[in-house]
Amino acid sequence: MLVVQGAIIVASIFQVVFGFCGFVGLILRFITPLTVAPSIMMIGLSLFGFAGGFAMSNPYISMPTIVIIIILSQYFREVKIPIPFTKSPKRDGRLTYKVFQSLPILLGMVFMWIISGILQACNVFHLKDPAKTNFDVLRDSEWFYVPFPFQWGTPVVELGAVFGILTGVIAGIIESIGDYFACARLVGAKAPALHAINRGIFIEGIGCIMAGIWGTGSGTTSYSENTGSIGVTQVGSRRVIQIGGVLMVILSIFGKINAFFVSIPEPIVGAFLVVAFSMITSVGIQNLKGVDLSSARNLFVIGFSVFFSLTLSQWVKSQENLKIVENRAWNQMLTILLSTGMFLGGFVGFILDNTIPGTRKERGLDEWEENFGSGKPTPGNLEDSYDLPFITFYLQKWEFTKWIPISPTYDQDKWVKLFSPITAVFTTVCRNMRRTIFRK
Question: How far apart are CA 165 and CA 163, in angstroms?
Fold first, then answer.
């Protein structure tokens, strides 16, 4: 555990530097709809085994849960429920609220959990049925426990472990970028501004360091399941996330409450994951809105990126002790990357779309760049969705903030102009080398 802690802390420093220094911008200029779409689609498709395994552990519980969630979120989403003890100021009667649109997952899971509990009390399930609520967890957990830094001891840093966690950090960065784009698409906002992506990666790195210090045994990153739940519930307000975060911090000291959530039966959790991952997959398809889908080139890029990444990632996961290269650290890193379907989908799409000839209109770049939040500072007209609350107004007054990649006023062109001579020399050398190779 101490080795894992040390590895998480050290590897996460890379993520902090990566986000703060704005290295994401070096690759974002080459990211197109045909890069983002396969990447987001693979978030859902690559995890079908995980979601399906949970759901099919008891289909008699998971299938009704899925049906209930679908009915509430799709068929009853416009149904308004009167709120007791309220009065509408505009008309006679009570205030109404679209409960089924906002809480379909919660209502569906709670209802089926009650049904599952009744069936368990009637001894319908066999002894080790995953649909049973694990009351042992509730009984054995403590009432109160306050986590504190280095509660397991002083972290130990080992190079091999650091390289292993670093691979997960890299995969997490790539997945987070895809999640940012998916969230923006789900809530109807412009694609994330460059400074917002930099800041997101930076903050996730800070969170990972804190997780290592507190000894959680894992890092923190954007969660694909939550991205899917936004699409189902249609709730994308930051206030909800902020209040939820505060509640999680408060509830973390109550062991019984945490154990209560852990005891949710696997089939019910699997039902939620099936719905959530299907929503994420469809969001990936939605990113192809401006792409010419009658083009054989684009159809090949999309189809090959998804199918090849799904095939290769599943094969790598099925291999035990796979040896790609001799070096242990590099072998572990490559194994993790090649087993991450989202990384493969985005990487293959990135290579194919940027190398196979195609027009800007064919690739959907015109509409993509029109909807893409550039993050360039325009006085009085910044993208509000990605501003920092309370301080953006003051940041606009300071010129130096335009050089900081995580600032809402960040202007990448300043760094581009600064390093343009070096970039020009590098481009010229690469062009001459390419001409020499092809001439031979």
Answer: 6
Rounded to 5 degrees, what are φ and ψ at 96?
-120, 160
Question: Which residue type is seen at 32?
Answer: T
Q: How many CB atoms lie within 10 A of CB 387?
A: 18
Residue 389's region, left for phi above 0, alpha for psi from -120 to 50, else beta, is: beta
Cα 393 from Cα 389, distance rounded (Å): 9
Length, in residues, of the chain: 440
Structure-token pair, residue 63: 């299938």
Number of neighbouring beta carbons within 10 Å of residue 109: 20
List the one residue out of 357, 40, 345 whose CA is nearest residue 192.
40
282-291 pLDDT per residue, tens: 877 877 878 8
Among candidate residues 309, 285, 346, 365, the one with its CA nearest the CA of residue 35 = 346
Side-chain half-sphere CA neighbours of 29 within 13 A: 7
Structure confidence by residue, pLDDT tens digits, 168-223: 787 778 778 777 877 887 777 777 888 888 888 999 999 889 888 888 877 787 77
Contact 161, 167 (CB under 8 A): no
In terms of Cβ atoms closer than 10 Å to its own Cβ (0-12, 13-18, 19+), residue 264 is: middle
Q: Which residue has the tokens 């080139």?
A: 297
Enter the DSSP assignment of 403. G
Closest CA relative to residue 177, chosen from 59, 329, 333, 15 = 15
Identity of the amino acid at 51: A
pLDDT (mean) for 260-271: 87
- Residue closest to 193 by CA, chosen among 33, 38, 34, 409: 409
In this predicted model, what pLDDT tens digit does every residue of 212-239 receive, in sequence order? 888 887 778 777 667 767 776 777 788 8
332 sits in which H/E element: helix 328-338
**DSSP label at 389?**
T
Asked if residues 171 and 340 have their Cβ atoms less than 8 Å apart, the reply is: yes
* Amino acid code (one letter) for 385: S
Q: DSSP string spanning 6-42?
A: HHHHHHHHHHHHHHHTTTHHHHHTT--HHHHHHHHHH
Could you say which DSSP state residue 337 is in? H
